[in-house]
Amino acid sequence: MPADPARVVADLLELRSLTSQPVEGIPQTVCGRPSDGPPLGSARLAWTEPWVRAREWFASTFDGVPVAIDVDAAGNLWVTLPGARPDRIVLGSHLDSVPNGGWLDGCLGVLAGAEVLRALHRDGVELPVSVSVVDWADEEGARFGRSLFGSGAVAGTLDIDAVRGLVDNAGRELGDVVSEHGVELETVLTAGDVHSSIVASAELHIEQGPLLEAAGLRLAALHGILGVERRMVRLQGQACHAGATPIPLRRDPTVAAARMAVAIRELGLEHDAFTTVGVWRVHPSVATAVNGRTEFSVDMRHLSRGVLDALVDGLQSIVDTIAAEERVGAEVDPLWSIDPIVFHPDLVTFAADVVERRSGVRHVMPSGPMHDSAEMARSGIPTVMMFVPSLNGLSHTHIEDTAEADIELGVAAFDDLVRRMIPWAMARLD
Ligand SMILES: [Zn+2]
Questions:
Q1: Residue 272: CA atoms inside 13 Å, Cβ hemisphere, count?
Q2: What is the pLDDT of residue 337?
Q3: What is the CA(94)–ligand 1 centre distance, in A?
Q4: Ligand 1 centroid to residue 428 C-alpha, Å
Q5: How far is the CA of 176 from the centre of ligand 1 (A)?
Q6: At what angle are helices 404-429 and 345-359 packed, to 10 degrees?
């Protein structure tokens, strides 16, 4: 009995109606059709009441299915269909959302995994391995700025001292807030006890970008997640009067930064990479003064470590060259970096096979956005992901949407993938 894709669409719609709020903004579509009623944005911010409500509802969708449901020391919600062995395949994503985000980001993967679990139970045959659906806690990091909290705890990459002092917009500390949800930072890493039982991991997600739609594709297998190198560039010039100092005599850090931003875009195009100037701060930001200081962030992403290294070197030489020409001081400070994630070749092949069979096109691509699957993969667990398209390439907004037929195709393909992973996992255990 294969998974029922229509059930997943119905569950997604029910979750949307239970945990959304009216938002100001342009009208939205749902399942690719104009929605009746006011535009709704998701309210499932991690560690808040709507998020808890979403999880309670989620647990109730397993009524009549002999699953074990428990929450681990990091707040991850596990639903396990036991098999002959405790070793498990994990189907994970997240129910939490950014404020006024979309109805599919994360929820698609969790609810598709749930339906695959119910379908495996309907088969009426004992599984050789266990299968768990996990709702990873606080994937988005939208409240405290630390993404991948729960999956990072299981992977062992969560730095407790770094997260302890994080505060939300209301000034509340992360440690106090998670404690109200039964999570103590002292013991959070014991969530990793489950790690040795995980044989493989898979995640279905929306693309959140424009590439599939632009190419007319309905499904993709992922071979990895782009690595990130993020820097803050700080330029020091000399503030002066806008009417008294001729242009050739100025040391204008904003002009230098603008030239650098254009060159950084060229650098990205040259390497077929993503390069983004995001933060942009000028001081003193007065209409009648040349700025004295300017700082901007640079986010650089690529699937190849070698290309990332070339981007880091390229950025440094752009900054050095233009800073010298504009006679401003320059510093390039590291903000964050993560190595590219490469998914397991066998699982990528399986995913590409089901994508080809279901959609007619064998399409394999990397993900630019981070996902919980990155934590699984980099902690050594064989992992793979699949994407369905995002309408207009948009996500993290209330108008995020995917055509109903594409959601259903994704669920059916994900079911196929899991059924190929089970014997593969067994073979690895023997
Ligand atoms: Zn997500």
A1: 4
A2: 86
A3: 6
A4: 29
A5: 25
A6: 140
CA of 163 to the centre of ligand 1 (A): 20
106 Cα–ligand 1 center, Å: 4
Q: Which two tokens stand for residue 361?
A: 């096109």
Is residue 219 a contact partner of residue 386, using CB atoms and an 8 Å limit?
A: yes
Distance 334 CA to ligand 1 centre (A): 25
Residue 107 CA to ligand 1 center (angstroms) comes to 8
Where are the alpha helices (H) located in 3-47, listed in sequence order?
5-18
Helix (H) or strand (E) holding 115: helix 107-122
Residue type, 353: D
Assign 172 to helix, strand or coil: coil
pTM listed for this prediction: 0.89
Q: How remote is the CA of residue 109 from the centroid of ligand 1, in Å?
A: 9
Distances (CA, A) of 69 to 84, 179, 411: 18, 20, 22
Assign residue 134 a region: left if phi > 0, alpha if psi is -120 to 50, beta otherwise? beta
User: Residue 255 and residue 263: Cα distance in Å, rounded?
Assistant: 13
Number of helices (H) and strands (E) in the chain: give both, helices first.
Answer: 12, 19
Q: Across residues 216-230, what is the average pLDDT?
A: 96
State the chain's maximal CA–CA distance in angstroms: 84
Distance 104 CA to ligand 1 centre (A): 8
Per-residue pLDDT of 173-194, as tens digits, reads 999 999 999 999 999 999 999 9
